[in-house]
Specification:
Layout lengths: L2 E4 L18 H13 L3 H14 L3 H13 L3 H13 L7 H15 L3 E6 L5 E4 L2 E5 L7 E3 L2 E9 L2 E9 L4 E5 L3 E2 L8 H4 L16 H37 L16 H41 L6 E9 L2 E9 L1
Parallel strand pairs: 2-8
Antiparallel strand pairs: 1-11, 2-5, 3-4, 3-6, 6-7, 7-9, 10-11
C-alpha cells in the first residue's frame, strides 16, 4: 500500500489592490483616536476593528466597546468590555478598572444574559447566528430584551427553544435535543471526513481539469506578483526622485521637516508593502504551477480505481487555492 497526500494552498492578492488601511496597529490606533476626537465614531470603530485583528488586547477591546456603545451596538459593547476586564492587568490602574466595571454594569442593565443547559460540544445559535460552542467563555451570551429563538446543534441531534428575555436579567435555557437526520449528518462523504470514495472497479481517476485549474491559479499568482513588483518599483523610484530633490540630506529631520518628506515616506511604505506582497504571490504561484503539473501527471497516469481521493478547489475573499488528498 502506497500513500500520497498532497496539499496545495495559497493566499494571493485576488484584485492586486492596496489595503484600505495600513498594517501598522500603532498608526491605526492613533488614527482611530483622532477620528473619535472629531466625533466620527464610525471611522474610529472601523479602524479599531482592524487594530483588533492585528493586535487583540484588553485596551483595544475597551476602545471597541466605547465606540460600539456610541454606535448603538450595545450587545457587542458588552462582549468586548467583559473581555477587556477579563484581561485587565493586575498592575493596571484600579480607577480605570472600576470605571470599566461601572460601564459594564450599565450595559448589562440594558441587555439580557442567557446561559445554556446543554451537553459540552454543542453549537449554540441565537436567532440563526452562531454564538459559540459549549462550554462558552464566558458562560453566557448577551441578547437584547425580547423574544429570541435559541438553537442547539450536535452531530445527529438538534433542538430549539424560544423565550422572552427580560431587561437586565440572567436566564438559563434548557434546550432538549432530539435525533436529527439532516443533510449535514448523512451521506458517505460526511462519514469519511469529506473524502469521496470511488466504487470498487471504477475506472475514474483524478480529473484532468483539476490540474488545469490549479495551474491556472498558479499563473494568475505569478501575474499578480509581476504587477505588484512593477508598482512597487514605481513607488520606490518616485521616493528616490523626491529624495534627490531635497535641499539637504537632513531635510526630513527635526521639528520642521520638508513638505516632501511625508510623500517620500508614503512611497517607501507602499514600496515595501507591495514588494512583500509580490514575493508572496510569486511563491504561491510557483507552488500552484508545480501542483497543477503534478495533478496533470497523475491524471495522465490513470491514478484512480479503488483509491480514496478528494480534490477541492477553493476561492474566498482575497484568497484562492486548492486541496488534493488521496491514498492508494
Amino acid at each position: 500500500m502506497r500513500a500520497l497526500v498532497a496539499t496545495l494552498c495559497v493566499a494571493i492578492i485576488a484584485a492586486c489592490s492596496v489595503p484600505a488601511f495600513a498594517a501598522d496597529p500603532d498608526q491605526l490606533f492613533a488614527e482611530s483616536t483622532a477620528a473619535a476626537k472629531e466625533g466620527n465614531f464610525q471611522v474610529a470603530y472601523e479602524k479599531m476593528k482592524e487594530v483588533w485583528r492585528l493586535r487583540p488586547s484588553y485596551d483595544v477591546a475597551a476602545n471597541l466597546a466605547f465606540y460600539e456603545r456610541k454606535l448603538g451596538k450595545t450587545r457587542e459593547a458588552a462582549e468586548h468590555l467583559e473581555l477587556a476586564l477579563s484581561q485587565f492587568p493586575v498592575t493596571g490602574e484600579p480607577v480605570v478598572r472600576d470605571r470599566m466595571k461601572q460601564d459594564l454594569d450599565a450595559l448589562r442593565a440594558e441587555l439580557g444574559r442567557v446561559e445554556f443547559d446543554v451537553p459540552s460540544g454543542t453549537i449554540i445559535l441565537v436567532d440563526g447566528e452562531e454564538r459559540g460552542k459549549t462550554p462558552l467563555k464566558p458562560a453566557h451570551v448577551y441578547v437584547t430584551p425580547g423574544k429570541h429563538t435559541f438553537e442547539a446543534r450536535r452531530p445527529g441531534q438538534r433542538g430549539s427553544a424560544s423565550i422572552d428575555v427580560a431587561t437586565g436579567q440572567a436566564t438559563t435555557v434548557t434546550i432538549p435535543l432530539s435525533k436529527y437526520e439532516g443533510d449535514d449528518d448523512s451521506g458517505d462523504d460526511k462519514k469519511n471526513g469529506g473524502v469521496v470514495t470511488t466504487p470498487d472497479g471504477s475506472s475514474e481517476g483524478i480529473p484532468l481539469w483539476s490540474g488545469i485549474v490549479v495551474g491556472g491559479l498558479g499563473l494568475a499568482g505569478i501575474g499578480a506578483g509581476i504587477g505588484l513588483a512593477v508598482v512597487a518599483g514605481s513607488s520606490g523610484s518616485s521616493a528616490d526622485e523626491a529624495a534627490a530633490a531635497l535641499p539637504s540630506r537632513t531635510a526630513c529631520q527635526g521639528d520642521a521637516p520638508h513638505e516632501s518628506c511625508a510623500s517620500i515616506a508614503d512611497d517607501l511604505e507602499t514600496r515595501d508593502l507591495l514588494s512583500n506582497a509580490s514575493m508572496g504571490a510569486f511563491i504561491a504561484g510557483g507552488i500552484l504551477v508545480a501542483g497543477g503539473a503534478t495533478l496533470i501527471g497523475l491524471s495522465a497516469a490513470g491514478v484512480g480505481g479503488t483509491e480514496n481521493a478528494a480534490f477541492v478547489p477553493w476561492i474566498g475573499p482575497g484568497v484562492a487555492g486548492a486541496t488534493f488528498a488521496g491514498s492508494f
